[in-house]
Amino acid sequence: MTKAFTDSTVLHNGVKMPWLGFGVWQISEGASVVDAVRSAIETGYRSIDTAAAYRNEAGVGQAIQESGIAREELFVTTKVWNADQGYDSTLAAFEQSRKLLGLEYLDLYLIHWPTKGKYKDTWRAIEKIYADGLARAIGVCNFQTHHLEDLKADAKVIPMVNQVEYHPLLAQQPLRQYCRENNIQLEAWSPLMQGNLDQPVLAEIAARYGKSAAQIVLRWDLQNEVVTIPKSTTPSRIRENTEIFDFELSAEDMARITALDAGRRFGPDPDNFNF
To answer: Which residue segments constitute the domains of the chain, with CATH numbers given?
Structure first.
């Protein structure tokens, strides 16, 4: 089990991906994102997750350049947005992201949403990016089991990662099981339920371990073997989110947290979204 902040999972192609990363969704371009990413890297984060749709790739790239950390020590993820899906447009979108980030290669490139009628052509383009050595690993976001099955039918490469909304109120157990059986690493976005942490069970467990509710949830992610990418712009919170490697939740507490599952989404439903 994950023992240290520096621990990584190994994706099915042998690439190592840190268990704990830093997300930058809703952090605005410019000084805000530069400062947040710089703070995260100084704290010890080596995995940074952005997306074309976040419109902050240039700032992420600037913070990476200014960090002084060797490129090979970092794990950088970005995503192709829905409007850019399709074969040629995905290749162009990737080049644009690469240029904004100022990077020769990406560590992980993802399809942001399973846009109907387009994601198979998008995946073919991403397979080419992977074959050309421009992305060390490739994957998807927000794919349900049926999307993954559909993709697999024609794919040359099975996605290495599926990044989905995942937290105690949306434990996604059938999807988690499917991904495990197919060697697809599950990754959690909005792991802290967009701040909706006021659950009595979490408060009670947190008090017992001397941790915050957020730290309990992030630890639950890791013990479920789910990569997690909490976001914050506050240096103290950025650090607090890393202080989850000095304790372990009991099997009973893990089960109690999982039992909070109510199928509740704070983001869009991948089967019913229109953007």
So the answer is: 8-258 (3.20.20.100)
